[in-house]
Amino acid sequence: MKERSASYIRKLVVTGALGALAVFLGITKLGFIPWFTGASITILHIPAILGAVLEGPIVGTGIGAIFGLFSMIQASIAPNGPIDLAFRNPLVSVLPRLLFPLATWGIYALLARWKKIPAVIVASVAGSVIHTVLVLGMLVLTKGSGILTGGDPSVTVWAVLGAIFVANGIPESIAAAVLTTVVVAAQLGLASSNKKSKLNS
Q: Phi, psi (5° rounding) for residue 118?
């Protein structure tokens, strides 16, 4: 009973801490890396990927919810540009952030039976790609994609979405894989050293 209670407390703490990290990265703009395309690369989704891999789907979804709600509130209170207006819609800002951690966890849980670190890399990349696809897809479904084309009929929304995916989605996936793998590898190394110290004591 005590172990279960401690597990719940740990999951709650991790959710709050990584959720707060996502908000902090957003407020301070540290989570946005300037990029040659003019649209910054974001790492705000990485805490949700970390939470899903380290603590499971509930924690990952909780962090994603915090990330999504923050994104919606920020778009409503202090939008940085025209595209932020689309993120006032919870279908664009919140729903994708609830779903992609679940997909990340599912991929990791499936692959971790064989090798953990490769599973982390694949799940992180896939989770980041799924996040990008879901957000862009919801922009199309909610008619927010018109903002991307600037109302120019000569510009197809699919060309714009494809360019965003290649120029931003791929680097974001690489960043997610690197950062998540480093943190998980450190956590696995710490757990391994703790086991060794207990065996030697």
A: -60, -35
Q: Output phi, psi for 31, to 5 deg.
A: -85, 5
Confidence (pTM): 0.85
First to last CA, the chain: 27
Closest-CA residue to 46 (of 171, 176, 172): 176
CATH number corresponding to 2-200: 1.10.1760.20
Q: Which residues pair with 32 in a beta bridge?
A: 42
What is residue 90's predicted lDDT score, i.e. its pLDDT? 94
The CA-based angle 22-28-33, given to 5 degrees, is 80
Question: Which residue pairs from 187-193 have beta carbons closer than 8 angstroms and sit at least 24 positions apart in sequence?
Answer: 187/54, 188/116, 188/117
Q: Where are the beta strands (DSSP E) in the chain?
A: 32-33, 41-42
Tens digit of each residue's pLDDT (9 = 90 or more) over 33-50: 766 655 567 889 999 999
Mean pLDDT over all residues of the chain?
Answer: 83
The two tokens of residue 5 are 């209670």
Q: 34 near 42, Cβ under 8 Å?
A: no
- Amino acid making up residue 179: L
Compute the distance between CA of residue 112 and CA of residue 122 in angstroms, rounded to an integer: 10
Query: What are the Cα distances from residue 83, in Å, to 69, 97, 105?
Result: 17, 17, 29
Using left for φ > 0, alpha for ψ between -120 and 50, and beta otherwise, residue 36 falls in: alpha
